[in-house]
Amino acid sequence: MGPEFTISVQPSASVPASTESEVIVATSGGTDWVQIFHGTDLGTAHWIREHGVDQTRMTAYYNASYAFCTTTCLRTAKQYSTLNNAVMMDGAIAAIFGAKIPIGVIKDLLNNNLVIEVAEDKAYEFRPPSFTTINSVMIDRTVTVSSEITFVG
């Protein structure tokens, strides 16, 4: 088992998380879900939670954006959030957007070249044609301020 982390926004939460492999949660309906994280700034994390991933907003914010980059590793997402342009250049608050996506949907998107898997970052890079699909299936959308995540162990 990997390190545990505690999210201070929800002080009673102590959730085990593997930083070595994707986190899969089986539901009672028999669907396997992949927990994804996106390191960003607080305003963007809230926007994605409320509205979903949007190509127009993404490219207006950073015109070199080619995909919605996520990772299954919370530690990596926290690092990405501190490297975010708005955080580094504008002093925005680093944050992490989290959600669960059915593993079957990710496999279908991989088969259709709509998502790129990046092994070294335990990442899924969702290309814009996949946004409607992922927005419709993402559940348990969360926003956490990066500084409130502490790794133990």
How many DSSP helices? 6
* Mean residue pLDDT: 81
SSE ordering: EEEEHHEHHEHEEHEE
Low-confidence segments:
1-22
Instruction: Please report the distance between the alpha carbons of the first and last residues.
Output: 10 Å
Radius of gyration based on Cα positions: 15 Å
Number of strands: 10
Our count of domains comes out at: 1
What is the molecular shape?
A: globular
- Biggest sheet details: 4 strands, antiparallel
| Beta-strand proportion | 25-35%
Walk across the major sheet and give the strand order. 3-4-6-9
Helix content: 25-40%
Give a verbal description of the structure.
The chain is an alpha+beta fold. The chain has one domain (4-152). It has six helices and ten strands, in the order E-E-E-E-H-H-E-H-H-E-H-E-E-H-E-E. It has a four-stranded antiparallel sheet with strand order 3-4-6-9. Strand 1 and strand 2 (14-16) form a beta hairpin. Mean pLDDT is 81; it is low at 1-22.
Key descriptive features of the protein:
three-stranded antiparallel β-sheet, disordered N terminus, alpha+beta, globular
In short, what is this structure?
The protein is of the alpha+beta class.
Protein topology:
Layout: E1 4-7, E2 14-16, E3 24-26, E4 32-41, H1 42-51, H2 55-61, E5 68-71, H3 74-83, H4 85-90, E6 94-102, H5 103-111, E7 115-118, E8 123-126, H6 131-137, E9 139-145, E10 149-152
